[in-house]
Design goal:
The chain is of the alpha/beta class. It has two domains: 7-242, Alpha-Beta Complex (Spore Coat Polysaccharide Biosynthesis Protein SpsA, Chain A), CATH 3.90.550.10; 248-310. It has eleven helices and seven strands. The chain binds guanosine-5'-diphosphate (GDP) and magnesium ion.
Length: 315
């Protein structure tokens, strides 16, 4: 129990025989249940967890018959903690990249009822640039920006951090059967939480690298998969939040922003083609391209501003 709340820590694990034991043994006593979700590992992960479970009644081992990805493993753990009515569920990876020292900070606001979901943010620290591999830092920054647009949580950064705590009410408010099964799970969660109007907060945590972890991320795969998921999630959120559950004219602003963006691309291409043929810019076309670009920027920026306003209390 932490602040009178029943706490479960969910650990998605895939081929983590080396570090999963360390993750389990460094968890503080106030954690009431440790739910390890084995994602059909090929190494001795299951044996390691089973031998620990023999002397620790808090450990629950759930096993996938097929490998499903980190999101699928998370969903399995969440369903279990939801069905067993744990007040707060935390996600910690099995490769010791989440510092147990940060756990109280992640838990506190959710346990105190100040918000529904907390998420570690490794970028608050001045030295993060030196501690996180450069390509991960840059990729993460781009994804964090697109996640702001897609999720409506404009105050949230470090979207790829999987160190999170969620309240039972929030867990019940989202559909766990359709969660994104792969690495984009933290982004997908944010979109769903926003549709359900849940309060989300970033908590500064220490980045942990070089503890012997091996990342399974295939950069080429996630470069397209996550932005695509974010795009679909954005449109789903617009529809659910601003058309079906409530109404807000910002959807017209986003729509016009997109439409004029499309026009400005077509007109700019036409402009360049004519420049090459005639040697000078076609005047009406050029003016129309400029007008479209300005309209597109203004409509989009206003839409973002309205979205930000609408969600400003969800923290
Ligand atoms: N690579 C990988 N990790 C999985 C899978 N299913 C669950 N996981 C767990 O998800 C967590 C994050 O994976 P990892 O590859 O370390 O991601 P990274 O730390 O963001 O590079 C770890 O605890 C893994 O054990 C899977 O199918 N592949
Ligand atoms: Mg890792």
């Amino acid at each position: 129990m932490y602040l009178e709340k029943k706490i479960a820590v969910v650990i998605p694990a895939y081929n983590e025989e080396k570090l999963v034991g360390k993750v389990i043994s460094t968890l503080p006593d106030y954690v009431d249940n440790i739910v390890v979700v084995d994602d059909c590992s090929q190494d001795k992960t299951v044996a390691v967890v089973q031998s620990l479970a023999a002397s620790n009644k808090k450990i629950t081992l759930l096993q996938h018959e097929q490998n499903g990805g980190v999101g699928a493993a998370t969903a399995t753990g969440y369903k279990w903690t939801r069905d067993h009515e744990f007040d707060v569920s935390v996600i910690m990876n099995a490769d010791f990249q989440m510092d147990p020292e940060d756990l109280p900070h992640i838990l506190q606001p959710v346990c105190a009822g100040e918000c529904d979901y907390t998420k570690g943010n490794r970028l608050f620290q001045g030295e993060s640039w030196g501690m996180i591999p450069k390509h991960r830092y840059i990729g993460n920054s781009f994804l964090s920006f697109f996640t702001k647009i897609a999720s409506g949580y404009w105050h949230i950064a470090d979207s790829q951090s999987g160190y999170t705590a969620i309240s039972l009410a929030a867990l019940k408010a989202i559909d766990l059967d359709t969660l994104y099964p792969q690495y984009g799970i933290p982004n997908d969660m944010l979109i769903r939480l926003n549709i359900a109007n849940m309060r989300v907060r970033d908590i500064p945590v220490r980045p942990v690298y070089n503890v012997g972890e091996v990342s399974g991320i295939k950069i080429r795969k996630v470069t397209f998969a996550i932005p695509w998921m974010l795009t679909k999630g954005f449109f789903r959120r617009m529809l659910q939040k601003y058309v079906i559950r409530d109404f807000h004219p910002l959807i017209f602003f986003y729509f016009l922003g997109l439409l004029f963006f499309f026009f400005s691309v077509i007109l700019s291409i036409r402009m360049v083609v004519y420049l090459n043929i005639d040697g000078h810019l076609p005047p009406i076309n050029t003016l129309a391209a400029m007008f479209s670009f300005m309209s597109s920027s203004l409509f989009t920026l206003f839409a973002m501003w309205f979205d930000m306003e609408y969600n400003k209390d969800l923290k």
